[in-house]
Structures are given as structure tokens and as C-alpha cells.
Amino acid sequence: MASERLIKRRIKSAKNIAQITKAMQMVAASKMKRAQIQAVSGRPYAEKIAEMVFKFVARIDQEKHPLLQINKEGKTLIILLSTNKGLCGGLNTNLLRTLIKWLTSSQLSESVYVTMGKKGEAFLVRSNRQLIADFSTNIPFTQNIPALTSLITEGYLKGEFKDVYLVYNNFISILRQDPTFKKILPISEFSLNNKEQSEEEKKTLDFLVEPSIDAILDTLLFHYLENQMRDAVRQAEASEHVARMFAMKNATDNAHEFIDILSLEYNKARQEKITYEIADIITARLGVET
Amino acid sequence: MSSFLLEIITPDRIVFTDNVEMVVVPSSSGTLGILPKHVPLFALLSEGELKIKRQVEDFFLSIGGGFIEVTKNKVMILVTRAVKASELNEQEIIQARQKAQDALSQKPTGEALISAQVILRQSLIDLKVLRRRKKIITH
């Protein structure tokens, strides 16, 4: 039976696949450990600096700094953090699907995009969206942050952008990564909401500032933007490695399952062949005897 | 003696959270000492040494630039880098300083220049912090 050889070949290729995916799983697992530590340990700082900025901005005059102004006109800038490589399960698909859903529901007037990650870039180009910059080739992505920060702030100060969003997969736990939309500019908008909640802090309006409000805002706001992006990049990276590890684990498991099924089939085919041969011999013998 | 809660956080980790009696920080316009019931304050910090005074012991940290926020019941310090004196290794710092000086002697430009300068400044502060700790121990 020809199928015997065929099945054997398929078993062999399934074994090869399992070997490769297993290796990729291991690589992703080791990268994941590092990325996860970074993502988790950076989180308190990112949260505190955001808190500090909101508290500080809520207490001072909004017109103090150009970055605090609100642009009425302009486009929405979306910074999309995806991955460069595939083989990470539904991570990118999920992110992009959520993005589309969000875009249709929020009815933005006009949006432009900056991407890190080839998958996101390819998607935006395919769907004819306005891509103004792509930082996918610079690895690790954290290298791009200074350039990206100046792109955002310059655009915002010129009034080209009305608001700026970060779109990425937030690393919540190993089993959960959620597509997240984080608004990083304008800053004043969320501090207004904060103001209502913190009546008590409003009373302590007199506080010392050193060296001056302007000097602090200059440093603090840039630092804040940079840190929020850095945090997002780290979260996205951790999510990527976790997703890849699980995707590869599933692939390995599937390949093993497939090998089991094929082996069973191979044995059946072999047994069938032997049975036929025995039947042949017996009939031949019976023919000779009579 | 009364105390207040101090938190020191860097992008990599939470370096310190505990009740302390006093903290001395290098602000951009000079050294600032903060005791309990300090007025609310928001200041820029520059690189330098930070001193923490606790009931049991005093200790020093070498910090990078950042911010300090003093509120009624808590002091929060966010800096790019903070290393306790006990975590510093003199040999490594001297090596780093040497490397930075070598790099600077070749007159680099742009990013290389900035990074070498940063490392040099950092190692000088680290050394200062380390020497101070030694002094305390030998006393």
C-alpha cells in the first residue's frame, strides 16, 4: 500500500514542525521572563508619574505651558504598537479588530497613524489609512522613543494634532493581554476630571515650587510623555512574547497529537498489509493443495 | 521623633518605601532637607547624593535626575536611577569612570558624547556616595 510510505512522510514532517515550534516556545519563554519583569517593575513608576502630572497640572494655571493647551482643530494621532513578527496567535488580529471597532464607534474626524511593528503597518497600508511614520526597523522599539516624543510634541505644538492615543496590548497577566487605548495628550483634559474628585487637594493650593513652574513643566511633561510611551512599549513587548510562547506551545501540542493520530493510522495500514499478505499466502496454498 | 513616609521609585523598581525622620535631596537649586510637616513642595532633582535619616541608621543613595513631591503625609521621589550605597561596587565604578574618560578623550560627538558624559558624572557621584559610607563605617 502506497499510503504507508505517505503516512510515514507525514509523521516525519509533523515531528520536524514540533521540534521547531518547541524551540521557538523555549526562546519566547526566556524572552518573556525578562520582558515580563521589565513590564511589571516599570508599572509603579509609570502610574506615579502620571499621578504626579495630573495633580500638578490640576493645581496650576492651564495656560502656563504650550503642551497643556487644548487644540480644537487638528487630527487624531494614533500610535499603534504591534509586532514585527507573526506566530503569536491572535495578538495582532485582536488588537487591530479592537482598533477598527473603536474607530467606528468613536467617529473621529480624521486620524493619522504612527506604527511600531510591521504587522500594524501592513494592516494600515492595506486599509488605506494615513501613515505618517513607521519605526518598525529600529529594534528594540525603546530606541525610537526620543524621536517619537519629539514628533508628537512638535506636531502638537503646531496644532496638527488634536489628541494623541497609544494603542497597544497591555500585559495584565500571563493569561491575559488586553488591547488598550491610552490617551496621552492633551494632558489638561484628564486633569479636569481629576479636579472634581480632589476637592481636598484644591484647598492646599499654596505649595512651593522649585525652581519655577515653567522649568518643572518643561522637564516633567516631556518626561511624562516619554515614560508613558516606554511603559506602553514594554507592555506590548511582554504581551508579544507571552502570546508567542502560548501560540508555540499550542502548535507543539497539536503537532504531537497529530503524530499520535498518524502513527495509529500507520500501524493500521501496516497491519492491514500483513493481513492481506497472509490471506494471499493461504489462498495460494489452498490453490496448490487442491 | 516624628517621621513621615518616603517612597523612592525608579523606572526599574521601587527602591525604598519606609518611614523616615529626614531626607536630604539634591534639588536643581541646591540641597534640600525635608523634615516631617514640611510645606507642600514640588521640585526638580538633579543628579547627586540623597541622604536618608532613620532611627536606626543613616544611609546614602546615588540618584539620577527626577522629581520630588512633598505632600501633607508623604514624600514621593521619582528619579531615573537610584542606587543604595551598599549596592555600589567600587571596582566597577572606577572601571566605568575610566571607560567614560577614555571615550571622552577621543572627542566623540552626538549621542556617544552625551552618554559618556552621563556615565562619567554618574560614576563620580557614585564614588562620592561610596566614600561617605566608608567614612561612617570607620568612625
End-to-end CA span of chain A: 30 Å
Number of strands of chain B: 10
Portion in helices of chain A: 55-70%
- Strand fraction of chain A equals 15-25%
Largest protein interface, residues of each chain: A-B, 25 and 24 residues
Structurally, the number of domains of chain B stands at 2
Q: What's the average pLDDT of chain B?
A: 84
Give the strand order, joined by hyphens, for the main sheet of chain A. 3-2-1-4-5
Profile the largest sheet of chain B: 5 strands, mixed
CATH architecture of the largest domain in chain B: Sandwich
Q: Would you count the extended β strands of chain A for me?
A: 6
* Major sheet summary line of chain A: 5 strands, mixed
- Shape category of chain B: globular
Average pLDDT metric of chain A = 85
Supply the CATH superfamily name of the domain at 42-243 in chain A. Answer: ATP synthase, F1 complex, gamma subunit
What does this structure look like?
The complex is a heterodimer of chains A (290) and B (139). Chain A has helices spanning 2-59, 91-106, 118-126, 145-157, 187-197, 199-203, 213-289; strands at 75-81, 111-116, 130-134, 161-173, 176-185, 208-210. Chain A is 65% helix and 15% strand. Chain A has a domain at 42-243: ATP synthase, F1 complex, gamma subunit (Pyruvate Kinase, Chain: A, domain 1), CATH 3.40.1380. Chain A contains 7 helices and 6 strands, in the order H-E-H-E-H-E-H-E-E-H-H-E-H. The longest helix of chain A is centred in the last third of the chain and has 77 residues, at 213-289. Chain A has a 5-stranded mixed sheet with strand order 3-2-1-4-5, sandwiched between helices. In chain A, helix 1 (2-59) runs antiparallel to helix 7. The model of chain A has no long low-confidence stretch (mean pLDDT 85). With 290 residues, chain A is α/β, with parallel strands linked by helices. The relative contact order of chain A is 0.18. In chain A, a hairpin with a 2-residue loop joins strand 4 (161-173) and strand 5. Chain B has 139 residues and is of the alpha+beta class. Chain B has 2 domains: 4-85, F0F1 ATP synthase delta/epsilon subunit, N-terminal (ATP Synthase, domain 1); 89-138, no CATH class. Chain B is built from 2 helices and 10 strands; from the N terminus they run E-E-E-E-E-E-E-E-E-E-H-H. Chain B has helices at 90-105, 110-138, and strands at 4-9, 14-20, 22-27, 30-34, 41-45, 48-53, 58-63, 66-70, 74-79, 82-84. Chain B is globular. The two termini of chain B are 24 Å apart. The model of chain B has no long low-confidence stretch (mean pLDDT 84). The chains are: A alpha/beta (290), B alpha+beta (139). The A-B interface holds A 38, 41-42, 44-46, 48-49, 52, 55-56, 204, 206-211, 215-216, 219-220, 223, 227, 230 and B 7, 9-14, 27-29, 32, 39-44, 65, 67, 69, 71-72, 76, 78. Strand 6 of chain A pairs parallel with strand 5 (41-45) of chain B, so a sheet runs across the interface.
